Amino acid sequence: MATGRFLVLLFTILAGVYYFDLHNHPAVQEALERPAFAFLAALRQQNSLAVPNVPVVAPVDAPNPQATVASPTGSTRAPFTRHIVAVGDLHGDAGNAQKVLQFSGVVDAFGNWTGNADFFVQTGDIIDRGDDTIKLYKWMERLRVQAATAGGLVMTHLGNHEVMNAIGDWRYVYPSEINTFGTVAARQKMISTGSIGRAWAQNYTATSRLPLHPHLGGPNTPFPPPHHPIHFRREDDYEDESDHTRYYDPEEPLSHSALSFVHGGLSPTYSNLAPFPTKINALSSSLLEKLQHRVQPPPHPPNHYPGLPQGTTSEEVELYDSNGPFWYRGWATDTEEQVCVDVEKVLARTGTRRMIMGHTPDFTGIVSRCNGKIIIIDTGISHAYGGVLSALSIHYTFTPVESDDGEPRWVEREVVSTLYADRQEIIVDEARELVGNFRFQ
Ligand SMILES: *[C@@H]1O[C@H](CO)[C@@H](O)[C@H](O)[C@H]1NC(C)=O
Ligand SMILES: *[C@@H]1O[C@H](CO)[C@@H](O)[C@H](O)[C@H]1NC(C)=O
């Protein structure tokens, strides 16, 4: 793999803030079928930023043989695709969760993995405000195994409500939900050293980093990579919002081609962002371990708030405070001007292009800010809220294109859509042309 010099032709970024309804636009459906060459030709014709009618690249589930191109060295360069579906807070409602996972294509009518998505991501808060705690966590583990068998991956996260329950802060637990466990003691056991608690400890993380292309490594590959620190410019230099490329590593054309997922948010002033996501997840594991292995305190209420365990470190305290990843709400509540400046710092440090989170609900739909650099997917799915049923879909395609000069050229494209029971909207459509040889495993 030739490292070092790649010529990055960054000739277009189609800032995606145009919305349209797929059902009302047959032209979009037609465009979905078109091969990448047509897409590239259209891009070139449009000559960069003139946006609207750019065709949508095929979110194909399998490589499109038409798009395969012979490389200059004679080997065949095949297109690569990845489909990611993310869902926010579920809060004890298995019925609505099934509806969402089904209309987004993650599961079939029986709740089994379909294989239509490569990654299913849940951003935490499965527990509280409903009765289906046991059912939902069992289902996640069943899906995890089914996904792995089909070559897919389920990525689940701890929300503030999972941690609250581990602490003994049961303010949002329904008495009817406790009955599904039998007794308070049985519930304490199951969420500490029992099946649910062990699933949290083994299979749930506080945050994750998902590279879009395997060249950058597998899920949760840390950024910056060890032994290869990437030097960023001073913070003052992040003020110019129009420069979309300033935090790319010039040696690495796919630099930052990754997503982050977290429940609350990755605050720009949080101390332990890097290396990402390793540092946060290590703190979360150690805090959870302390919570699960203490003598379980009598739950609050009616008892007093038990607080964090003896021996909790200051970094673990900071992890769980309002500026930490479980509770932070700034990306939802701060002004557009502020968040669009701050987001660049966090994307730079975490090696990502967009941050996807739940926690702060908008009952009318998924919220996209700063051209999809911030996407908030809590729409109050649970009947406890009566919001809208929603999922986020990301189709990533990496397609070889014909080249006049013998260089291996590709178009990297992300189409991010919001999915609802009755409609879909494209919220981001960005593409870059780049040159180089990449690892696909
Ligand atoms: C769903 O998966 C389970 C195994 O987890 C299997 O027993 C069952 O037959 C599947 N149902 C359908 C309808 O495919
Ligand atoms: C965690 O996930 C693996 C599959 O990746 C599964 O075999 C294991 O049982 C899960 N752990 C728990 C405690 O559910």
TrEMBL record:
<dbReference type="GO" id="GO:0016787">
    <property type="term" value="F:hydrolase activity"/>
</dbReference>
<keyword id="KW-0732">Signal</keyword>
<feature type="domain" description="Calcineurin-like phosphoesterase">
    <location>
        <begin position="83"/>
        <end position="181"/>
    </location>
</feature>
<dbReference type="InterPro" id="IPR029052">
    <property type="entry name" value="Metallo-depent_PP-like"/>
</dbReference>
<dbReference type="Pfam" id="PF00149">
    <property type="entry name" value="Metallophos"/>
</dbReference>
<protein>
    <submittedName>
        <fullName>Adenylate cyclase</fullName>
    </submittedName>
</protein>
<feature type="signal peptide">
    <location>
        <begin position="1"/>
        <end position="19"/>
    </location>
</feature>
<dbReference type="InterPro" id="IPR004843">
    <property type="entry name" value="Calcineurin-like_PHP"/>
</dbReference>
